[in-house]
Design a protein that fits this description.
Elements (H helix, E strand, L loop, with lengths): L1 H10 L3 E6 L2 E7 L5 H10 L8 E11 L2 E13 L5 E5 L4 H21 L1
Antiparallel strand pairs: 1-2, 2-3, 3-4, 4-5
């Protein structure tokens, strides 16, 4: 599963920041200058903050006969003084449903490979 998650996220522009036996941490900076990026930056920081950085973590647990994966996504920005403001997006139903669907697709794809 880890190899598959690494492949799929690297194909969609996510950068691997940290890896352990039970966790993968990816990030993606939105430096597009889009209205959405600007709005996110201002909502979390101010006009001098860094562009929004999306952070995606997968927690992978090997259970008897199966693998359980939980994902967590957040967006952060760094203020000029170094303070990092972060907002977790899993509380948003649309975001939660999108990442649950992604995990369901990963599961189906990996089951086809077996």
């Amino acid at each position: 599963m880890k190899d598959y998650i690494l492949l799929k996220n690297s194909e969609t522009g996510w950068s691997l920041e940290q890896e352990s036996d039970s966790m993968l941490f990816f990030s993606q900076v939105d430096s597009s200058g889009s209205f959405n990026a600007a709005l996110t930056t201002v909502a979390l920081g101010n006009a001098y903050s860094t562009p929004p950085k999306y952070e995606l973590k997968y927690f992978i647990n090997q259970l008897p006969g199966r693998v359980k994966i939980v994902s967590n996504i957040a967006v952060s920005t760094q203020m000029p003084g170094g303070q990092v403001n972060r907002m977790f997006l899993n509380v948003n139903n649309a975001v939660y449903n999108a990442y649950q669907e992604q995990l369901n697709r990963f599961k189906k794809d990996v089951e086809k490979i077996k």
